[in-house]
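Inverse folding, one chain.
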C-alpha cells in the first residue's frame, strides 16, 4: 500500500506539473500572440513614419532645388551688373585719363606758344560772364594754364 501511495503521489505531482505546464504553455501562447499583434502594429506605424519621412525629404529636395535655381539666377544677374559697372568704370577712367592728357597737352602748347612769342606764361583768369553762364548750367570750370 505504501508503494501505491508513493506512486499515486508521484502521478499526482506529474499530473500537477503537467497541468501547470499546460497553463504556462497557454499563457506563453497568449503572450506570443499579444507580442505578434504589437509587432504588427509597430511595423505598420514604422512603415507610415518611413513613408512620411520620404515624402518630407522629397519636398525638401524640391524646395532646395527651387531655392538653388533662384539663387543661381540672382548670382547671374549680379555678375552681369558687376561686369557692366566694371566696364563703365574703365570707360570713366579712360575718359578721365584722356581729359588729363588733353589738359596737359593744352598747357604745354600754350607754354610753347608763349615762349616762342616771348610772353610770360600766366594763369588765365575766368571772365565774370563765363562764371555766370557756367554756374547757371550747374558746372564750374576753371582753366589754369
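Residues assigned per position:
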Amino acid at each position: 500500500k505504501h508503494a501505491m501511495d508513493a506512486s499515486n503521489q508521484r502521478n499526482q505531482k506529474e499530473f500537477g506539473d503537467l497541468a501547470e505546464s499546460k497553463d504556462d504553455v497557454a499563457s506563453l501562447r497568449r503572450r506570443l500572440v499579444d507580442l505578434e499583434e504589437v509587432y504588427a502594429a509597430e511595423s505598420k506605424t514604422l512603415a507610415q513614419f518611413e513613408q512620411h519621412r520620404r515624402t518630407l525629404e522629397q519636398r525638401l529636395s524640391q524646395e532646395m532645388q527651387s531655392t538653388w535655381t533662384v539663387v543661381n539666377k540672382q548670382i547671374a544677374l549680379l555678375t552681369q551688373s558687376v561686369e557692366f559697372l566694371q566696364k563703365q568704370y574703365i570707360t570713366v577712367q579712360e575718359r578721365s585719363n584722356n581729359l588729363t592728357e588733353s589738359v596737359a597737352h593744352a598747357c604745354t602748347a600754350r607754354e610753347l606758344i608763349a615762349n616762342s612769342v616771348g610772353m610770360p606764361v600766366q594763369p588765365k583768369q575766368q571772365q565774370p560772364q563765363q562764371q555766370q553762364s557756367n554756374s547757371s548750367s550747374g558746372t564750374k570750370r576753371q582753366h589754369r594754364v
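The helical segments are 2-117, 128-136. The chain has two helices and no strands.
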